[in-house]
Amino acid sequence: DAGVIQSPRHEVTEMGQEVTLRCKPISGHNSLFWYRQTMMRGLELLIYFNNNVPIDDSGMPEDRFSAKMPNASFSTLKIQPSEPRDSAVYFCASSPKAGEQFFGPGTRLTVL
Amino acid sequence: GESVGLHLPTLSVQEGDNSIINCAYSNSASDYFIWYKQESGKGPQFIIDIRSNMDKRQGQRVTVLLNKTVKHLSLQIAATQPGDSAVYFCAEKGGNNRLAFGKGNQVVVIP
To answer: What are the DSSP calls for A19-71, one per residue?
Structure first.
């Protein structure tokens, strides 16, 4: 099992550009989570999906952020337009029903 | 990961000694708790979990204790090794599927 796969691992972009982060959850897991981690705020849940349906997006900071899960094996987190304060490590995690969450390696985003 | 470090409580422990990491949780309705370990540049990794109907659970070199009366969780690591150096997070889960993470504790193992 390859675990949760995220791409890219590192992204450097300029303010105003669109950023798309990708995640492939572990096969068979029915919940997927997007987190953001910064020194100041720690690990924050942005949104999570259950059976490809967004359940709770209350952690999404603002309308510039959007997430989709078109099928059980793929999800994207998009930031448009990006701002320097979006710089963080973004983690995707997946879990089986009512189980522990397995985290991906993260995407380190730097917005200049 | 980038996260943590400068503002985290830090536990320095001599290699071979036991470590105890503490966590206070907030929701008395939480029924599931997890400890995660995060090494630099990596995502959080599951260590051990415990349900609210238990007060102790043991794994390999790790023990989690749960005190629901005071909403306190602890992680004990026996015979700490250099590879145990990391940030440790506790997380609680309530009625929904969300995990609420603590701020984390940095453990530094001194060889």
So the answer is: EEEEEEPPTT--EEEEEEEETTTEEEEEEEEETTEEEE-TT--STTEEEEEEE
Residue A112 CA neighbour count, 13 Å, CB half: 4
**pLDDT tens digits, B50-106:** 999 999 999 999 999 999 999 999 999 999 999 999 999 999 987 677 888 888 999
What gap in Å lies between CA B84 and CA B89, rounded to an integer?
Answer: 13
What are A74-84's pLDDT values in tens digits?
A: 999 999 999 99
Best mutation target, A101, A107, A111, to test chain B (most B CBs within 10 A): A101
Please list every residue in chain A whose beta carbon sits closer than 8 Å to the beta carbon of residue B96: 55-56
**B82: helix, strand or coil:** helix
Q: Are A91 and A106 in contact (CB under 8 A)?
A: yes
